[in-house]
Design brief:
By secondary structure, the chain is an alpha+beta fold. It has one domain: 2-Layer Sandwich (Creatine Kinase, Chain A, domain 2), CATH 3.30.590.20. It is 40% helix and 17% strand. The strands form 3 sheets. Strands 1, 2, 3, 4, 5, 6, 7, 14 and 15 form a 9-stranded antiparallel sheet that branches. A hairpin with a 4-residue loop joins strand 14 and strand 15. The chain is globular, with a radius of gyration of 22 Å. The N and C termini lie far apart (68 Å). The mean pLDDT is 96.
Length: 468
């Protein structure tokens, strides 16, 4: 074997070991049944004007004064964009911009406990915002995004992210890009992380990959053009989607832990940190990145107020900056993060987390039920292609609505059964999904059909903001 071949082999072995240690080793610990939940909620100015950031900043001060959150992070302007409760681990933050408020909850075994804390936080915030002609609402796209100042939070990470997404004109023939690189400033998700175990990791990823087309029918809440769930489109046709392995679902059935690691190895890095500077560069698959002696990128020079070129040397620690946007993603915490669902109407905000949590308890039964859904899965389409079809307004002609309604109802039954097995009286959190399944009426479809029949958008902003 030549010296070059030996170097390449050593590189592959080193990268394999790093990926294993970061993503697989944490799944070797006993599963505890915890859930980590995140809600991203649009802020709207009810006067159809840009969100008043002074109202947002004053809200943050009031919230911290009421709930005692500390561990504060401030942006370059001195404004708070992140604060954590050291007792519960709950976090109030602003995601990408001050137009989106995010709740991240400390891990807990009981979803109803998390729901109780959310209700208290949300009621306080709405009591503050509504008299000031602002509101949160439960939608996957900010309905007043066209009025807002869609600017990133003034810190290194968010400034870098938007600059990276705006760099797509440099890659004209790479993929079919959309022209809304600032989508992260108005797109909102409902995400949950659940403990994973090494012995079942591969099966869990495969089963939930198969489920993604079905989830689109239940949780779509971001209508845009002919999409009911547009978040797939925004991510896939942006700089994040230059490497398709960084987005969407797995486009193949995984057969082993080794294949999971091999898949992660094909994902691309697009940013690192050096000397407290965020640097973005052309998305580069990991193996290729670590084989380079130099990489050229850009960083924001705060003193000059512009982006400057920089050349740097890859370091193994850069793996910590890998950002995947897979719908079912293995994390360094020993969890799988489920991030394909839009934010939900506030009254149903726990449904995504509860649905996923329940199904995690009944994976064999779920797999059997999906095996029986040949009307969907045996029609010549991959799961990725099915997801792309079912996020659209019009269902494909080969599907019968009744078959889909039955499948959705059965899957919700399984989720409720899984929640019952947990023994924490959480099964009520998925009950509202049955009405969606019985008529294939996701929140997005309800909104779109209502708008077409003359219901004003303001009605849905208010209705999707209701706590009960």
């Amino acid at each position: 074997m030549s010296s070059k071949d030996l170097q390449e082999q050593a590189l592959e072995e080193k990268l394999y070991a790093l990926i294993y240690d970061k993503y697989i080793a944490p799944t070797e610990r006993p599963k505890k049944g915890y859930a980590g939940i995140e809600f991203e909620l649009p802020i709207v100015n009810l006067r159809k004007q840009p969100v008043d950031f002074s109202v947002v900043h004053n809200l943050t001060d009031a919230f911290l004064g009421r709930f005692g959150f500390s561990d504060i992070s401030r942006d370059d302007n001195g404004d708070i964009y992140n604060a954590t409760d050291p007792e519960t681990g709950d976090c109030l933050s602003y995601d990408c911009s001050f137009n989106t408020l995010e709740f991240s909850f400390g891990i807990d075994e009981d979803l109803t406990v998390i729901q109780g804390r959310f209700r208290e936080y949300y009621a306080f915030i709405q009591d503050y915002l509504l008299p000031r002609h602002h509101s949160l609402t439960g939608m996957g796209l900010n309905p007043y995004r066209h009025f807002n100042n869609n600017v990133p939070i003034a810190n290194g990470r968010y400034r870098m992210l938007l600059h990276h997404l705006e760099s797509y004109p440099k890659y004209p023939r790479t993929i079919l890009f959309h022209d809304r690189p600032n989508f992260g400033l108005f797109s909102c998700a409902s995400q949950v992380q659940l403990d994973a175990e090494k012995d079942t990791l591969v099966d869990t990823l495969n089963i939930f990959t198969r489920l993604e087309p079905v989830k689109a029918l239940l949780f779509a809440n971001s209508p845009f053009e002919d999409f009911l769930c547009s978040r797939d489109y925004f991510w896939k046709h942006s700089m994040h989607g230059v490497n398709p392995h960084n987005v969407d679902i797995y486009d193949k059935e995984l057969r082993s832990i080794e294949e999971v690691i091999a898949y992660i190895r094909t994902m691309s890095l697009y940013c690192v940190e050096r000397d407290d500077k965020y640097i973005n560069f052309a998305p580069t698959p990991l193996l290729e990145y670590f084989s380079k002696t130099e990489v050229e990128g850009e960083y924001y020079d705060r003193e000059l107020g512009r982006h400057e070129r920089i050349t740097f040397t890859p370091e193994w620690e850069d793996l910590s900056h890998l950002r995947s946007f897979k719908f079912d993603d293995v994390t360094f915490r020993g969890t799988i993060e489920f991030r394909s669902a839009c934010e939900q109407p506030v009254r149903d905000i726990m449904t995504v987390a509860a649905f996923q949590t329940g199904l995690m308890e009944v994976l064999p039964e779920l797999n059997v039920r999906l095996d029986r859904a040949g009307f969907l899965y045996d029609q010549g389409y991959s799961c990725l292609e099915l997801r792309e079809l079912l996020v659209k307004r019009d269902l494909p002609a080969f599907l019968r609505e009744k078959d889909l309604e039955v499948l959705l109802g059965d899957v919700i039954d399984l989720s409720a059964e899984g929640l019952r097995r947990r023994g924490r009286s959480e099964e009520g959190l998925v009950q509202n999904l049955y009405s969606r399944a019985s008529h294939l009426m996701s929140p997005a479809r309800v909104q779109v059909e209502g708008l077409e029949s003359g219901v004003p958008l303001e009605y849905y902003i208010e209705d999707y903001a209701k706590l009960d």
